[in-house]
Amino acid sequence: MFAYLLLLFAAFSRVTPHADWLNFTAVGGSLLYFGARRPLREAVLPVAVLAATDYYLTSFGYGYSFHLGAYLTTWLWYAGIVLMGAGILKSSASWRRVGGAAVLSATSFFLISNFAVWAGSVMYPHSVGGLTACYAAALPFYRNDLISTTLVAAIAFGSPQLVRRWAHAPQANHPAAG
Known about the structure:
Layout: H1 2-15, H2 27-37, H3 44-61, H4 72-89, H5 95-119, H6 128-167
Helix pairs in contact: 1-2, 1-3, 2-4, 2-6, 3-4, 4-5, 5-6
């Protein structure tokens, strides 16, 4: 159930207005968690929910016309991160694995999405300098995505561990006040 709630939080984190400097989304962390905690036959659900938010944001939030081809790379990345969660974190969600998956998630999105922007754009020249400029312009977004993905993944995977530890912690005996 928590995987579904986290997925809804990810969708709302994208469509809810927030300060430009914050740029917080729960997408990467929720996709990792969903992949690790739900059966692979359900993997299409998070991709569909986030694809719907892409359509909503493009058409209604930003007022642009929606072009399916512009989003295929992103949607394949969504599916890839769910698969990464299933492959890396399903059997063991140690803090090293969760941290590594969070870094790999944010970094892969940064590399793939900005390469796609550069390749399909007239904004950047199709040269090494243009590719470098495209990646440099996206660094603030990468930083925020890395922080939000790591934070969401740490909370999602770490909270149940903390609850279990607190529930099984020995209780101190306190004398009754009289």
